[in-house]
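> forwarded from #structure-qc
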């Protein structure tokens, strides 16, 4: 029975350690997306045209 308590304690310590490492990585910007904003400007016109076409189609369907 003492083995279960020992394993449970070790697993909680490891989980807390991984959580703090994850928080440190987030704080340092490890998961920031640096690629998408530079590419988004290339496709922005297509997105604007699609949304304006969709809104025009929705207006004509409701009238």
């Amino acid at each position: 029975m003492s083995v279960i308590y020992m394993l449970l304690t070790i697993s909680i310590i490891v989980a807390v350690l991984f959580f703090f490492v994850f928080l440190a990585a987030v704080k340092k910007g490890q998961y920031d997306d640096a690629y998408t904003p530079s590419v988004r400007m290339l496709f922005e016109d297509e997105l604007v045209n699609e949304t304006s076409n969709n809104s025009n189609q929705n207006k004509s369907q409701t009238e």
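QC bot note: The chain has a mean pLDDT of 81. The two ends are 73 Å apart (CA to CA).
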